[in-house]
Specification:
The protein is mostly helical. The protein is built from 16 helices and eight strands. Helix 8 packs antiparallel against helix 9 and helix 13 crosses helix 16. The termini are far apart. About 5% of the residues have low confidence.
Length: 440
């Protein structure tokens, strides 16, 4: 077995004849402090990283080690950007957040809320969204008694003063001192959610932080323009074929699965073979969506099933049932030497990077994203006159109008999800005809 130079990868054993050499991902977890002279845990240890048994030395162990290196790189980048603290919890770095706010202020109320179990139970992405909106609320209202904030105050904060360009408001473009429509919409959304919390949260004197209706309800928010980019089925097929020709096999399989299941990229990246279950019409993925936690069933076409089986079989290591399926293509030793890079589990950044390479090769100048696959599938289904309940079950969200009744009487069973697949097939033909007509 040749030597590899993989960060934090070490081997033990294998010196005596007949014994196996074992590989480990061994991050630096403690070192002596130059200031105190004491042995102290490193940032890697504080962020929760530990020794990982990678199995017998070889391509499979190398891939596991590279996967942990990618995970560490992504975590460290988030820490450097100030998105997480030393314990790995999401934060937004703001000096004002370290202050002790005045009694009865909005900042004090928000700080109390962040100390509750309700806050801790929120999903990390939801907490990040709150903190992202808070950074616009805090400079203006953080120190202010929550009960003294009026409609006029909020209107000025959100929309600015039309007679004074020095008070642009959040809605103004960034070059004019604002943050733009999208971020202003987010800030107002978080303000309204925070007001709801303050209306039930008690101060030191036993009174609620706010009373009555939220004065911001008198403000009509400007809704940011939603993404409307879509891919057609033939475009998706071209992307998959291009990825295969360029030897991005993991990306090709991931794109095919993403198109069929209508899962988001983050859900696809977390798929494992353990989540693949047999069904009369072919295996399906049964997962809980990362964003909503709602159960979802991902059906696969026959072509995607063949591609997925082939991709897993050609991997240079045995895929553990609990490990994510889709990996980067890795790289071998170059003409001048250098260490080989075995395939590593896809992260948000590496999947996007590889997709951009393939997209540029197939569709120069294109800006559509992988995440647009989800919307594209919904468009196919709608064009095929899908039942709203079937589409809701397919997408595992509340796109149907009567979500409570549907959740009670129409759970996301495989047969229901396949109704949306049939509608997508019908809609695909409709969209092709429309596209051909537009060309003429």
């Amino acid at each position: 077995m040749g030597k590899v130079n993989i960060r934090y990868y070490v081997t033990r054993g294998g010196d005596a004849p007949g014994t196996k050499k074992w590989g480990y991902w061994a991050p630096c977890l403690a070192r002596r402090s130059k200031k105190s002279g004491e042995i102290e845990p490193t940032l890697m240890a504080k962020l929760g990283f530990a020794l990982v048994d990678c199995g017998q030395d070889g391509p499979s162990a190398w891939a596991i080690a590279e996967g942990w290196n990618a995970r560490w790189d992504e975590t460290f980048a988030r820490y450097k950007r100030g998105e997480i603290d030393e314990k790995g919890k999401p934060i937004i770095v703001m000096a004002s957040q370290e202050r002790i706010y005045p009694p009865n202020s909005v900042g004090e109320g928000f700080a109390r809320f962040r100390g509750t179990a309700t806050w801790e139970k929120k999903k990390p992405r939801t907490r990040e969204d709150w903190l992202r909106g808070w950074k616009y609320i805090e400079p203006v209202f953080g120190d202010v008694d929550a009960r003294t904030i009026s409609f006029e105050d909020l209107d000025l904060w959100y929309g600015g003063d039309p007679d004074d360009p020095k008070i642009p408001g959040l809605l103004a473009p960034r070059e004019e001192g604002g943050v733009g429509v999208r971020e202003a919409h987010r800030a107002m959304k978080i303000w309204r959610a925070l007001y709801g919390v303050l209306s039930v949260l008690k101060r030191e004197d036993g009174e609620r932080y706010v009373e009555g209706k939220d004065p911001s309800l008198g403000i009509r928010r400007q809704t940011p323009k939603a993404r409307d980019a879509v891919w057609l089925y033939d475009d998706a097929v071209r992307l998959v074929k291009r990825a295969i020709r360029m030897e991005y096999y993991g990306l090709a399989a991931a794109l095919a699965v993403c198109w069929d299941t209508q899962f988001s990229p983050v859900d696809v990246r977390s798929l494992t073979t353990a989540k693949l279950y047999p069904d009369a019409q072919g295996p399906v993925f049964d997962v809980d969506r990362t964003k909503s936690g709602k159960g979802a069933i991902g059906t696969l076409s026959s072509r995607t099933r063949i591609l997925l089986r082939w991709y897993i079989k050609q991997l240079p290591f045995e895929l553990h049932p609990s490990k994510p399926i889709f990996h980067t293509r890795g790289s071998g030793t170059g003409p001048k030497g250098g260490r080989p890079r075995p395939p590593a589990m896809y992260t948000k950044d590496t999947l996007s990077k590889d997709f951009r390479v393939v997209r540029v090769a197939e569709f120069p100048g294109e800006t559509r994203k992988v995440s647009d696959f989800r919307r594209s599938g919904a468009l196919e289904a709608v064009a095929g006159k899908v039942d709203p309940a079937a589409l809701a079950a397919k997408m595992a969200n509340t796109i149907d109008e009567s979500r409570e009744l549907q959740a009670t009487y129409l759970p996301a069973q495989t047969a229901v999800v396949r109704l949306a697949d049939e509608a997508r097939t019908r809609g695909r033909s409709v969209l092709r005809v429309a596209k051909d007509g537009a060309r003429k």
